[in-house]
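INTERNAL AUDIT FORM
Audit reference: QA-55
Scope: verify that the stored structure record matches its stored sequence.
Auditor: D.O.
Record contents follow.
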Amino acid sequence: MFEPDIAPSGTLLGLLQRGRGDGTLHALAAPRAEALAVLNHCVLRDPRRDWQLENRSLYYARLYLDLDGGLGEIEQHLFDPEDLTDPAEERTGLALAVLGHLASYGRDDALRLLRRYAADGANWSWALDELALRDDDAALAALGERVLARFPRTPEGDGALAAAVRDAFEPRPWRLWADEQHSPRTAARVRAAQEQGSFDRWQRQLRPQGPRPGWSVREVLDWAQEGLAQHPAQLRHVPATRCLTAVAGPEDRLEIIEAAAFGEGAARATALRYLAEHGDPQALDLVEGAAADPDPLVAEAAVTAFERMRGAAALERARAWVRRGDALGGAAAGMLACRGAQYDAPLVLDALRRTVRAEGCDAPVLWELADGAGRLQIACAAPVLRHVYRETASSHLRGRAARALAATDPSFAAGFAVECLWDCEETTRELAAHHATTADARVVEQLRRLASDPAEEAEVQTAVRSRFEPGAPTV
């Protein structure tokens, strides 16, 4: 999937792509046709950097409700001829999730569209999962024959059906279709697929692959390295580290140190992680040398190994490395942000400012640095955190910046906390429910809406109710 093209943060499109609360507020104030056009653009061209982590579907569904938006463009997108050539979940997943939320709000047109796509669309399994949570038994049972018709009655088709049943995220439809009473025409075949899936799991358990009891350190390292020769390549250094922990003893230390210093890619990565996790006195020097290795597997493993280290020695080395301009310097900054003492605040602040200047507002280390600015209550970090909040394309990073601002910026309650009540991330809405000033009439109205919305997360509603209890602070 290509990197999404994110519009400037000061535009309506940029606000909605980021999932900011101000996006909803600006869309409701804009001409309806313009707002709907921008909303459709976001839903049909998923703007998320990580579509499996960031939330947008409920945020967009609520805006469709507020704007009384039709679903014509979503329907055209789902049934475009491209659906036959590009079945990737990224193309249609957001649209289907939005339809699922709209169906839960009582939009029958969204429910009908999901049923049609589950019967005919390429990403049918996602639509089926949405229906499994919201549709009635009769409607789901009626879909059974259409879904099973996708799997020809051949050994390959039966195998694909068994895999689909086994891997289903929501099993409710398959259980209905396996029931003679609900779906007599599909029951026998679905039950056979369920049995085949159970048999496949049993067979895999009888034929485990990988290290065996009694393996030596050398055999584990060789197994890790052999993974790179597979097609496709298998990165085994993480499980190999766990295996090494099980088989290595004090007498193997020198062999592991030699592998960490001079071994081949995956074997060296395995040894580095092992030494770091066990706090070996040589680990930090070996990590420093490996972080500059031209092999990206070794360099990344060295940085990851350092990030997992605990203890005073790792923190002292982080203070020495924090000004490095490479990945190891970023890891050192993140470690100080998460575990450093109050006197490390100037180093964390300097790293925060330097990272934003050099790498922009979406650098991965900013997640830890934002957390650290809040944990250490670095008040003079507030201007940088406000900039990150506005500009980042990551709704999760924005939420972390908001949490840090709540600890560092006295104006947060009357400022960003208000718009956070409409944010796309539930953790950010929960934060806002605790902090937003109720002197703003919009805040009280939105708090009441969140409290009564059946689609809202329980944690958010708990935070909202705490604001209406007797004696609750008005901020």
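Auditor finding: record pair retrieved intact. The chain is about 65% helix and 0% strand.
Action required: none
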